[in-house]
Amino acid sequence: MQAWLAQATGRSGIRPGPVLAGGNSNVTRLIETNEGRLVLRQPPVNVISDKAAAGIEREYRVISALKDIAPVPQAVAWCSDPEVIGQPFAVTEWVEGVALTERLPEGWPDTDETVNRLGLTMVEGLARVHAVDWQDVLPADFARPDGFVQRQIERWLKVRAAERVRDLPLLEEIGAWLLANQPASSRASVIHCDFHLDNCLVAPDRPELRVILDWEMATLGDPLVDLGLCLFFWQRDPAGVIGFPFVQGLTNRPGVLPARTLAEHWSAVTSLGHKHIDYYVVFAAWRLAAIVEGAWVLQTQGKVDTPYSRGLERDVPALLAEAAHILEKGKVR
What we know:
Blueprint: H1 2-9, E1 15-22, E2 27-32, E3 38-42, H2 52-65, E4 75-79, E5 89-93, H3 112-130, H4 134-137, H5 148-162, H6 169-180, E6 189-191, E7 200-202, E8 209-212, E9 219-221, H7 224-232, H8 259-270, H9 277-300, H10 307-329
Antiparallel strand pairs: 1-2, 2-3, 3-5, 4-5, 6-9, 7-8
Helix pairs in contact: 3-8, 5-6, 5-9, 6-9, 7-9, 9-10
């Protein structure tokens, strides 16, 4: 690996560092060099999905395309040869920043205003992605620019029916509602497909977005898909039964800006409307539940056994219940 990295990057004194993060999607490893730090991204050793390597390549293509026009890590090198480390991998520049989930960093003002600034910088960064004309930066065959939402609903209804291991009536009911009430899409943009604060790095000393991470699911679609997910996770009721309560958990404060204000800020930056945003909030919660139910299926089959997969017994129904509540009551409108 050191020899390949030296040749591909022109760096010297290459030293593999620790694993920084990992999960079902990919693993992130620090690489030290004499000229500065790099980050290596690869599929996990025990790959659950055979599409994991394709996701890493997709991520590299997207961040290469968005270089200098959106807040993404700087792409450095791509290796498709599995002989180097046993799997394909990507290399990016190191970004000095912190990832936030449930708590603000030590020393930051623990105030609603701090969280508000995080929310605004988050949607501003997302808006910069959505403002990019994908046809200027990506090849025509990167992804289909139309029909993403409908394809996703039909796909996950079919998958969950084929792999059913428990009764989840809300999954079918909300899925049918989403198909019957799908609004016309405004335009296609590059979309992240898993966008929330936890997948961002912010400056270590202030609430300012540095980069958006984890682009392995990126595709083309209505930009409200991304906005819908991050607003779903914004200002939830921590006293309620909520799925994945830790995700963007630091925003679950009664005094922070309402989701509507973040949606309006996104629209002001992008010049795009958000008339049907509640539909996309419901879609985001439903799609997440439908996808991660797959890990619960593996748990019941004895193929995985982790705190994450065990927690899905509760998290998936909770996500669907939240989606049903938003469908009835709304969140942004």
